[in-house]
Amino acid sequence: MKLNKTLLGAAMAVCMGVMSSTAAADALADIRAANKIRVAIDLGAPFYGYIDEKMQPVGSDVEAAKLLAEDLGVELEIVQSTNSARIPNLLSNKADLVISSLSITPERAKAVDFSIPYGAIQAAVGAPKSLDIKGMDDLNGKAVAVTRGGPQDKLVSAGAPQAKVVRFDDEAASITAAATGQTEIVAITPPIINAIAKRNPAREFEVKFVIQSYELGIAMRKNEPELMAWVNDWIRSNLKNGKLNDIHLKYAGVPIPEEIINGAN
Q: Which domains, from first to last, does the chain contain?
C-alpha cells in the first residue's frame, strides 16, 4: 500500500512537472494564436514613447515594439502605461511584454524576467547653466523633479536625502516642470535634458552630471522560456543588423553603447 502511494505520488509529481513545463511554454504560442502581441509602453517618456502632434504613439520603444511585432508576424497592441504601471500591467496580464525604457535591476527581477539588454539609459541631473551643480551633495536643500518610481527617483532620494524631491507621474510632466521653471533641477536622461534646452533655450539647460548608467531590458512574466528565447534571439539579430541602433539614433541622437552591442554577440 505504501509502495502504491509512493508510486502514485511520484506519478502526480511527474504530471505536475509536465503541466508546469507546458504552461510555462504557452506564452509565445498564445501570442501567435491570438495573432497579436500586447506591449506595455509609457507614452509620457520622450524620446522613448510619446504622442506626436498627429495624436499617434511614437518614440524609440514604440518603433522597437513595431519591429518586434512585425518580425514575429503578429499585430501590435500598445498598452499605454505610466512609468509606475509598466510592471503591474504585465503582472495583471494586460500586457505580454514591457518595452518601455525599463532598466534591469535586482529588485524588478524578483517580479519579472528580463531579456538580454537591448539598450542603455543614463540617469543624469540637468539644470540651468547658471546653477553650480557638480554632484549629489549639491542637490541637498534644492527642489529636484523626478518621475515617480523611476531610477532617478531612487537615486536622488538615496544620494541626496536632504533634497526636496518633487515627483511627477510621467516624464512629460517632469519635462514641463523643468522647461517652465516650476523646478530648477531635473533628474532624467541626457537626451531629455537636451530636449528641455531646445524647448526653452532661454533657460540654458544642460547636463550637470551623470549619476549612473542602466541596461535596458524587455520584461515578461516569470517562467516563459520559449518567449524569452525568441525575444533574446530577436535582440541579438537586430543589434547585429543595426536596426535597433538606427531607431536609437533617430530619437536619441546618439548610438547604443558598444558594450551593449558587443555583449549580445
A: 26-118+217-263 (3.40.190.10), 121-214 (3.40.190.10)
